[in-house]
Amino acid sequence: MAGSFPYQAIRPGDLMESLNQTLFLWLNAPEHPGTLISMVAILLAEWFIWTIPLLIGIGWLRGSESTRKAMLVATASGLLGLLVNQLIGLAWTHPRPFMIGLGHTLIPHVADSSFPSDHLTLWWAVAFSLVLQGGPRNAGITLTLLGVPIAWARIYLGVHFPFDMLGAVVVAAFSAWLTAQGAHWYLGAIYRFATDIHRRLFGRLIALGWVRD
């Protein structure tokens, strides 16, 4: 028909990717970011992750049996989340913003798949696991809330898209749920093994009362 225009359907994937990039550009650092906000973002994005092994280590060394078991399940949750992310990355590779020349990148990062965020998957998998287990719930809630500014920082610094963080939430929730539901299959054996190693490594400190048996 004269005067008609060819119709081209917009694929849902293209629409989602456009939204992902738009949100990224809204949250990403400007061309000339302020020094203070950049320092805060780097602190959140690169250094806060060490809170996870520190918390688990202190919980193990100073906690009761129930706390130690909670830390083991949280560790299993984090490891499972990272494994799931690797499988997703093998099945579908999504470039990071700097790999397609989008936005501003303020920290160096390897050019691998961005989805889901390993950083936030580990963080939230441990946090969600502690929340589900009840005993260390306050610590889990605190970690969960702290994950939000960390997610912002990774986007602000240019190494992740917003949807990478949504993917991390889903993988982390799945990992926390699965490791909590299946704890009766593995926790007893792992706890005995870890306790044996603990006593071998810290026997002298246990005798001095500095570390719990």
TrEMBL record:
The keyword Membrane applies. One of its GO terms (molecular function) is undecaprenyl-diphosphatase activity. Keywords: Membrane, Transmembrane, Transmembrane helix. Pfam families: PAP2 (PF01569). CDD domains: PAP2_BcrC_like. The chain crosses the membrane at residues 36-58, 70-93, 113-132, 139-159, 165-191. Residues 69-180 form the Phosphatidic acid phosphatase type 2/haloperoxidase domain. GO terms for cellular component: plasma membrane. This is Undecaprenyl-diphosphatase. It comes from Tibeticola sediminis.
